[in-house]
Amino acid sequence: MRAILIALLSALIAAPGFSEEPAPVARMAPGPSAVVAATGQPAEFSLGAGDLLEISVAGVEDFTLPARVGADGTIRLPFLGNVRAEGLTPGQLEENLADLLDPDYVRDPQVLVVLKEPLSRMYSVLGAVKKPGQFEIIGPVTLVSAIAAAGGLDYASAGTTAVIQRSYGLAPGARPYSIEVDLRKLMAEGNVTLDLPVMPGDVIGVPQREAQAVYVIGDVGKPGAFEWPLEGEISLSRALAMAGGPTKTAKMKEAWLVRQAPDGSVERTAVNLGDILKGKKPDIALRPEDMIYVSGSTAKSIGWGFVNQAPNIFTWGLLR
């Protein structure tokens, strides 16, 4: 009996596609923030393609079989052939293998399946994050905790959308599908319904955003273009502060908000900065590519001629 089992082990190790040393896998250990409570995700994940298993039979000395789940979802075992593993938990696979073992060789076998290398339980976070890479799912993981495990968003370059490429639950070889998540609603507004569970094999991409800015020119301390933040809005008073505030020669009652309308035309709205800064009038929420012009001295007011004649608001990129 022992000779048969050792022969079985030797045959498996010699079989193509199997080795004693597991194939290296690039991985990072997620931080504590990656393990968070979430609903709708089982505690024990199903096995999947790429997982490296260690199969043993209790009470049988020197009997340990390494087996990797193939692309077809099966493991290949001598004398048993291909055995379906994908979609099963380790416990379910143990029961199936116990049923398949010949009772003439092992009576009432107690099979143990250990997940040694959970390749199918990995997910990736790429793009505009601080530490992009591959991570293992340990306990339930959501989109927010996955991004946290990757060091968080790189706010200087991150766009407003995350794209999840998902193949979990699909038939082998099926094309992954995409899920788009509005990061501004998730991160800034706290919409927890968008904090989706991360599934094995997910690839989370955070595309870099196209540069957007708000422009403040005229009689201010530091006129120029100011990058639009991902995490929130910019009010007129905040934009003015970013530009160093009005100078002593600024005409607080003679400011202008210049904005491109949906039809492509340019809208110019008179603004009384003094009333806004004193709280007499409500602040104004700006939009990306808005321009604030603060009237003042003749030298700094020369730019108003350009603003007044500009056919397209996006030509102000020259200020960057």
What does it look like?
The chain is of the alpha+beta class and 320 residues long. It folds into three domains: 93 residues, wza like fold (2-Layer Sandwich), CATH 3.30.1950.10; 86 residues, Roll (Outer membrane lipoprotein wza fold like); 107 residues, Roll (Outer membrane lipoprotein wza fold like), CATH 3.10.560.10. Helix content is 19%, strand content 24%. The strands form four sheets. The chain has a five-stranded mixed sheet. A five-stranded mixed sheet has the order 12-11-15-13-14, with helices on both faces. Strands 2-1-5 form a three-stranded antiparallel sheet. Strand 1 and strand 2 form a beta hairpin.
Quick rundown:
The protein is of the alpha+beta class.
Observed structural traits:
single chain; alpha+beta; wza like fold; Outer membrane lipoprotein wza fold like; five-stranded mixed β-sheet; 15 strands; 19% helix; disordered C terminus
